Amino acid sequence: MNRRTFLSFAAGAGAGLMITPIPWKLTDDISIWTQNWKWNPKVPKRNVFFAEMASKLDPAGTGVRVALVDGVPVGLASSQDHPLSGGGVSALAAAEVGLLMSPARVRQPLVRTEAGLAPISWSDAEALLAEKLGRAEGDVAMISGDDTGTANEVFAALMHRLSGSFYMMPGEAQSAHKALEKLGGEGHLAYDIEGADYVLLLGADALESSGTAVRNARAFSQSHPSGQPATAKYVYAGPVLNNTAVVCDQWIQARPGAAASVALGLAHALMERGATARANGLDAFRRDVAANYSPARIERETGVRADTLRKLAAELAAAKRPLVIAGSEFGQGAGARALMAALGLNAMLGRINVAGGVKIVPEAPAVVQGAGSAASRYSADLVPFLKKLAEGKASAGVLMVYDANPAYALPQAELMAQAVRRAGFTVSFSSFMDETAELADLVLPSSMALERYDDVYTPYGAGQAVYSLNRPLARPAFDTRATADVLLSVARRLDIDLGYLAFKDVLRAKAEALGADWKALGRGAVWTSAATTELVPDLSAAAAPAPRAQGEGLLALAPVAKHNLGSAKVALPPLCAATVRGSDLMVQMNAKTARQSGVAEGQAVRLSGPGGEMTARVHITEKVMTGVVAAPLGFGHTAWDEYSRGLGDNAYKVLAAADDPETGLSVWSDTRVNIATA
Amino acid sequence: MSTFQDFPIRWGMVIDIDKCTGCGACVVACNKENNIAPQENQLQRIAGKGFPTRFKKIEWLTIYELTDGSDTAYLPRPCMQCGMPSCVSVCPAIATDKNENGGIVSQIYPRCFGCRYCMASCPYHARVFNWDQPVWPEGMEKQLTPHTSVRSRGVVEKCSFCHHRLMYAKDAARVAGEDPEKLPDGAYVPACGEVCPTGAITFGDVKNPEHAVYELVRSPYTFRLLERLGTDPQVYYMSKRAWVRLQGDNYLANEEAQAGEGGAHHG
Amino acid sequence: MDRALWPEGVERCSLGKFLLWLGACGVVFALGAYEAIMILFPDGLARTALDNYFGFGLWITFDLAVIALGAGAFFTGLLKYILDIKELEKIVNLTVIIGFLCYSGAMLILALDVGQPLRSWFGFWHPNVHSMLTEVMFCITCYLMVLTLEFVPNILENRKLNQIPLLHNIAHNFHYVMPLIAGIGAFLSTFHQGSLGGMYGVLFGRPYILRDGFFIWPWTFFLFVLSAVGSGPCFSVLVVKLMELLTGKTLVDWNVKRLMCKIAGTMLTLYVFLKILDTWAWATDVLPRSGLTWDQMFNSELGYGVGLLWAEIGLGGILPAILLMVPKFRNTPALLYTGAILSCVGVTINRYVFTVQALAIPVMPFDKWYDYVPNWAEWGPSLMVVAYGFIVTSLAYRYLPVFPQEVALNAKPAPAAPSAPAEAEQPA
């Protein structure tokens, strides 16, 4: 062979190979293989259907549309027409679908054995619970964290029949009921925020974690068209530039727990200008305000300068439709004081029973006999009871916990966990393996909102009566049941007839009682009513001096609630983990406070307060007022799953509740802490 | 540098920074809609093997926290869908292109071979890479949406302005007997814009006077990120605060005075 | 034992010693290959310290650096075959081998660096005519083929292989077409060396590396070519010197080394002059019109200080240019080699700052500086390629007639016969 033949052969072979399918098929195959590796999940290819639902996870009760493919919930879209959302979806609601498959979900009923929690069948579990309840002879307590559902009527009625006690988890809803009661009213406090042209938020994180936050955000949005002058002014008074304050037109720096004082200081300033109110008990109110809430005193106690206070009062007086919404900066612990004071202030501004102001929405009619009224269900104070239980001064033969995590999300959290342990027989109905369920003797996992019948009636802060019905949109992912149904069944085992076979029937009765169309509700329609009750408040107790701050430390503690990090009920959802910043995990203070405390950016510190200690690193930011250290809520979980367990520390440990016999609701919104390097 | 078509429609997103609370609902909605797995497990899989995890997270929409030392603002940053994309001209396999009416910059996962040149060229860090194969927590892979495919290891991905929603909106228009190229305001909105509780995100065709964004992009408070680089972004930001607008671009000391007035550049 | 495979008239060390040497290189190779395999199969690029901020890192720097240093191949080839500088004949075989190793090594690293290596051919099948990287892919692949074609005849000239008539013919015929191949190689090489620079210069989202230019070619296009030819020949000389140190032989005579370095020095001088002009133009035009200042481009705390720039231009540019251009310095071996080393260091710093520092600099005002430190998953395969280079060079040196001057330069004077008059032989 010579060169020419070799080259010809090579060229021929090359050309020949090119016209065989071999190289083309191979490259085509490679490009297909590289798209279809077996270990990558495949997406469904079917149509998406939407069904309406009201979020039970998000206290805002936002209406959402669940996207379903082949009966599997795959996402959440907004519900334009729902009065509580107007198209918005909070981070927490958006994560609800993903929580369905969260690793923390309890997948079947569990009973405590020597070796830990072991599976048990539903019938055995119900039998066990019935037996325990029967033998407890009235030494029974139930805690519910569901502020909007009719399920509470079933629970309260059962407790009534068993001569047990019923507690609602402390929060803004309880504070509102108590405040209204103290002022001689009854029903739901409703804020017509859409109609206001000046909204003063005292502590209440109304655009993020307090009340009907999504609806409030929508109202804020309408009044602040992009690029145009705002048609309402939103002012936030609080210690931290939180998610609400960062978009408000003005941030007034006020120390933690100062909402009541600032409200009464404003009342004082208004009184200086000669304002009066259509209310009873005015003399006592005036007297208390004049004695204890002068602007000079307010400046000392809350950090709000006297001239700022007077200017604010002037703006309130000048506004056509001002509205004052007060509350805890972190969704619990303000007791009834802040709301009582704010009602007094709203009364002085003439903003009660008017459009754009505070209205009273009647309670929904009760449909389960023995359930009592909503106000009565909110009357018992949980934290003192649990403290006594932990200290052995009270007992609970059976303690049942629904939609709440008291072992984590209450002040002196470690003591609260002790209480749960000390109860004779603890039952958790949690959908997730939370701190309380981990301590429980029996875990009867509740189906999630997507998987059960449930309802939402007028969440705290809603501007009118609103009623949504949830049907099960997906088959339960695991062996779980709706708790109301479980307890109806357990009641039957105890020969207690609560009047209904299934919870669905309770809801049907509720709809009927409200005058709502059951079928329409089932299709996702929302029942509303503009009916209100008139309130002529009795302000005699509204300005009574409040309990002092808890703790002896140099810094005021400002717990911060951001719902993308979880809430009091649910730890960081898997889908929200993406939104956590490094600084979210840190305690925050401004440069001046850091200098005074001798700490630097990134330094590990220990915060010690009246309830206990927490550790964290320091982040320096001007989002916190001087003399205050802000601590994030929602971290430091010891249960749940890998998304939250072991991340950060639990700020609830540091808080401690103080009794407030005047109002019957303990408070923990004004806590002093000390900081030391860890 | 190549030039790009001037399309009849120009999809634009206007983000009012003064209304952004930093709540993160947009990020959560985006991740769910576009089949982005919760990254915890992903990063733990990497960390568990002893490898570095910094900046290996998949996230299409990132929220930055801005401050001037006393005030704070939040800035959500999706893909800018640049009118003059620095990424499209550099991709060696045309896995990313700007060739559709509306101007959304595409990212074709089966075409991308992961050279990451586009990531080097994007100054907005809008593009992320699949350093590892996607890991879904058990059970969550059953909740994938049909909207976007799952991306495998080794390809770049980025925000697509929820392009699948544009397709659905056009289909809906066709079924209703309307013109798919003349969608009314609000017929097509990406997931982030849909869920924002404060309505900070407005979306539409900036060339269409009937769309809300038309007026918004002409506001004196509107600015775009890094405009002077010549990227012509289709994401617009608004703020009444001069210090926020000043952080939208780099300015020399003597330029800041004029820049604070706010520019009304619009597409 | 393998004496029959050695080129004519040369001496090599024992096979055992050679195998030991290969084994040592092989260990480094294996350690790196393990990382490469772990990346390709179970772990993916998650194994590395690359991330979303630093999509380019050690490997791209390494690739660009070895491609620049391997420029000795095309430039020497161009000068020898096209401009007919006969002296370079003595070293051209080695430069081809270095080039082949640099480019094949770069391709190996690139196959590892992309996320989906099986799809690499998409760049050929779906080329983007606007992208500099497309140009790079095509040219580098074609050039690697060219280098292979240039390397093949050397392989076929192995003593044993050359005895096979067919192979001998092929090698013989290759030499006829070598000028054509060298010309093609020079053309391809100029373009991709330039396009590698162009890749950075077109990035208008990164003002640090953005440059104006001539038509579609940013100035970095030309600067990269010049810096490559200003250091490639130096690298070839350094490799020869290293081989001489390791083998104890003289492989290429001093004049050739000096000539290579003079050529590199000339190109380096031109490069440094233009580089300084370019840096000034960038600092006074590109930066201010992007709203950025000189100081914002550097961060000494993280290791991206302006000192690197002075090192690149001064220590790695002006100083070696002087050392290589001034005859007094060039004629002093210590200074020549210093100059060569500094030239190579300079081009490496340049490739590093263009790749890594460019990505470290924040462009959005609220973004931050970050630093990048490669981990073993990246160093390993890089060292694997270096080991690969050592192994192939060692094999080529042992078995192929790489150095035409070797026999003459290492001829020992004949031992003095006891009775016959001694005849001293002078080295050629």
Word description of this protein:
Chain A has 678 residues and is α/β, with parallel strands linked by helices. The model of chain A has no long low-confidence stretch (mean pLDDT 94). In chain A, helix 7 packs across helix 13, helix 9 packs parallel to helix 13 (337-348) and helix 15 crosses helix 16. The radius of gyration of chain A is 28 Å and the shape is globular. Chain A has 4 domains: 48-98, 2-Layer Sandwich (Phosphorylase Kinase, domain 1), CATH 3.30.200; 110-171 and 363-529, Rossmann fold, CATH 3.40.50.740; 174-361, 3-Layer(aba) Sandwich (Dimethylsulfoxide Reductase, domain 2); 555-677, Barwin-like endoglucanases (Beta Barrel). Chain A starts with a helix and ends with a strand. Chain A contains 21 helices and 25 strands. In chain A, the strands form 6 sheets. Chain A has a 7-stranded mixed beta sheet with strand order 5-4-16-15-14-6-7, with helices on both faces. In chain A, strands 21-23-22-25-20-24 form a 6-stranded mixed beta sheet. Chain A has a 4-stranded parallel beta sheet with strand order 11-10-9-12. Chain B has 267 residues and is an alpha+beta fold. Chain B has one domain (11-260): Alpha-Beta Plaits, CATH 3.30.70. Chain B is built from 8 helices and 10 strands. Chain B has helices at 25-33, 39-48, 117-121, 163-175, 191-195, 212-216, 242-246, 256-259, and strands at 11-16, 62-67, 72-77, 96-97, 106-107, 128-129, 156-157, 201-205, 222-223, 235-238. In chain B, the strands form 4 sheets. Chain B has a 4-stranded mixed beta sheet with strand order 8-1-10-9. A two-stranded antiparallel ribbon of chain B has the order 2-3. Chain B has a two-stranded antiparallel ribbon with strand order 4-5. The longest helix of chain B has 13 residues, at 163-175. Chain B is globular and about 50 Å long. With 428 residues, chain C is mainly α. Helices cover 67% and strands 1% of the residues of chain C. Chain C has 15 helices and 2 strands. Chain C has helices at residues 15-43, 58-69, 72-82, 89-113, 122-125, 132-156, 165-201, 219-229, 232-247, 254-289, 306-325, 327-330, 333-360, 376-399, 406-409, and strands spanning 213-214, 217-218. A two-stranded antiparallel sheet of chain C has the order 1-2. In chain C, a hairpin with a 2-residue loop joins strand 1 and strand 2. Chain C starts with 14 loop residues before the first helix and ends in a 19-residue tail after the last helix. The chains are: A alpha/beta (678), B alpha+beta (267), C mainly alpha (428). Chains A and B meet through strand 3, helix 3 and helix 8 of A and helix 1, helix 2, strand 2, strand 3 and helix 5 of B.
